[in-house]
Design goal:
Helices cover about 30% and strands about 30% of the residues. The protein is of the alpha+beta class. The chain has a domain of about 170 residues. Helix 5 packs antiparallel against helix 6. The chain starts with a strand and ends with a helix.
Length: about 525
């Protein structure tokens, strides 16, 4: 597995060691950082746009060499290969033009409508149905690759610029972008609307990327010395990690297990998605800021990052990775406090979850509430007992009996360590055997205690999680009941208002009848008086 990094030159590194396989300097001289890089479908070609000059295509299949310089397009600013074929490449220019270039025929295949300002980023969607072009004025234009027309335009909310742009490799309708105002936004090009946006950075966003195994996971880096992860489905930032240097480039490994970032000082860091507290590997990339990072496509991604001992141990412990959901274990005060508040005070969101000001049904509210809270419980991952026993056996025996036993250091990791006593032990053989038995008994006892404690913790977690889900479902049921009660009450109120609307007219008739009766009574009295007179 290899990765390309770009600054003023392009370097191809072996992953994860960082050893430089190739180094390529475009153009006759160094004018500035490379503007864009893009791998072809088979990973044999790389398209790059230098700071000044013409776009180039280089090959690293057998050896590094320049195979084509695109002469037909002047002042290129960005380029991107198609995802389904290596024959065509999209190129944006500083004058606002967007072309699709046929590499085999060496001519311009399509011309899209000109934009109002220079193009800074260009990307194909996952199935090559559309081309997305970001411009200097902060607008992104969506072109139909089939109909060769402008399908729509987007803009990052509360921003006047676009500093980073990537398309989703899984969902062809998602596009993520970042701005100099620190806002990260995701567009749904099918609905022509903003699906998600958040101002998580306090400085310009330098790079964004989608996870290749989970369409809802996004990472962003910025000049505020932090990188953030987002859950598009939950519509929130799920964690942010602060670093010593500002990160200027980011990309996920093809298997989604690692995220690689380039810093402003030219160093490249490798983070394990299981534990993002510290980088698991780092290596020097360039003398200047790393502008772009991109893993090579269509390679044998079974190459493991783990050492030989870890590979052997991984065969004993079965691990499961889900591509439908993710759980990043972050030690972050913001995320921890958010989870704690959500777990201890779920009733705080009771009125908000009623949805009285929304036109949502009861079923949708219950489903939305469950979806928004299913990631709140922290994931419990027990340690590996075989690793604990292995480390303890080696550490104790290496310090206590170095002259009595020979160790097979290359033996596979397992709860039992292969120990071979020397043949010339003499009278001390029985004593050493007794000591060995006592030591193993003590070690196994400690191991059993550790495993028991972990099982207790796991049971506590499972019990707590079950109780929490039951409580949440009960609250959802209460929400549904209250909402239905309010609906019924509103219906009764409207009916009552309709009935009372006729009351003033009835009251008027009653009063008029009463007055007529009084007049009749007075007239009868007057008539009777006249008769007597």
């Amino acid at each position: 597995m290899s990765i390309a990094s770009a600054s003023t030159s392009v370097k191809f590194h072996e992953f994860p060691s960082g050893n430089v396989l190739h180094n390529y300097q475009p153009g006759p001289q160094i004018d500035g950082p490379i503007r864009s890089i893009s791998w072809s479908k088979d990973g044999n070609w790389l398209a790059l746009v230098p700071y000044s000059g013409l776009a180039e295509i280089i090959s690293i299949k057998e050896q590094l060499k320049l195979i084509h310089t695109i002469q037909n397009i002047e002042d290129p600013s960005c380029a991107s290969f198609q995802n389904t074929t290596k024959k065509n490449i999209a190129i944006g220019t500083k004058s606002g033009q967007v072309f699709v270039y046929d590499i085999k025929a060496r001519n311009i295949k399509k011309r899209f409508p000109r934009t109002t300002s220079g193009v800074t980023h260009v990307e194909f969607t996952s199935k090559d149905n559309h081309v997305v072009a970001a411009c200097e004025n902060g607008e992104a234009y969506l072109y139909s690759h089939v109909q060769n027309t402008l399908s729509g335009s987007f803009k990052i909310p509360r921003s006047q610029s676009i500093s980073a742009l990537r398309t989703n490799p899984i969902k062809r309708n998602y596009v993520v972008a970042g701005s100099n105002e620190g806002v990260v936004a995701v567009w749904d090009i099918h609905g022509n609307k903003n699906k998600f946006f958040i101002g998580s950075h306090k400085a310009p966003v330098t790079a964004v990327a989608f996870s290749p195994v989970n369409s809802d996971l996004v990472v962003s880096t910025g000049f505020d010395r932090q990188f953030c992860f987002y859950d598009i489905g939950a519509n929130k930032c799920i964690g942010n990690i602060f670093v010593e240097n500002s990160m200027t480039a980011v990309d996920f490994s093809p298997d989604g297990k690692f995220v690689v970032m380039g810093s402003q000082k030219g160093k490249i860091y490798v983070y394990d998605m299981k534990n993002l507290q510290q980088p698991v590997y780092s290596f020097f990339g360039h003398n200047n800021a790393v502008e772009h990072l991109s893993f090579r496509k269509n390679e044998d991604y079974e190459t493991s990052f783990m050492s030989l001992e870890e590979v052997k141990e991984s065969n004993l412990v079965e691990t499961h990775r889900s591509t439908e959901s993710f759980n990043i274990e972050l030690v972050c005060s913001e995320v921890t406090s958010e989870k704690t508040q959500s777990l201890t005070k779920p009733e705080d969101s009771f009125l908000a979850e009623l949805g009285l000001d929304k036109n949502n049904t009861v079923g949708s509210n219950i489903q939305d509430s469950y979806q928004s809270n299913k990631y709140l419980m922290p994931k419990y991952t027990p340690t590996q007992p075989s690793k604990i026993l292995q480390d303890k056996l080696f550490s104790n025996f290496q310090t206590s009996t170095p002259e009595t036993y020979d160790f097979e250091l290359n033996a596979p990791l397992s709860p039992i360590v292969n120990l071979e006593p020397k043949k010339d032990c003499g009278d001390n053989e029985k004593v050493n055997t007794d000591n060995l038995a006592k030591f193993i008994k003590t070690t196994v006892s400690d191991e059993l205690k550790a495993v028991t404690e972990e099982l207790k913790n796991e049971m506590k977690y499972q019990t707590t999680n079950t109780l929490y889900q039951t409580r949440q479902l009960f609250l959802n049921l209460m929400m549904a009941t209250v909402k239905e009660s309010i609906k019924v009450e509103n219906q009764f109120n409207s009916l009552r208002e309709e009935l009372l609307s006729d009351v003033p007219q009835s009251q008027y008739l009653l009063e008029e009848n009463s007055m007529l009766k009084q007049k009749i009574a007075l007239l009868e009295e007057e008539i009777s008086l006249l008769k007597h007179n």
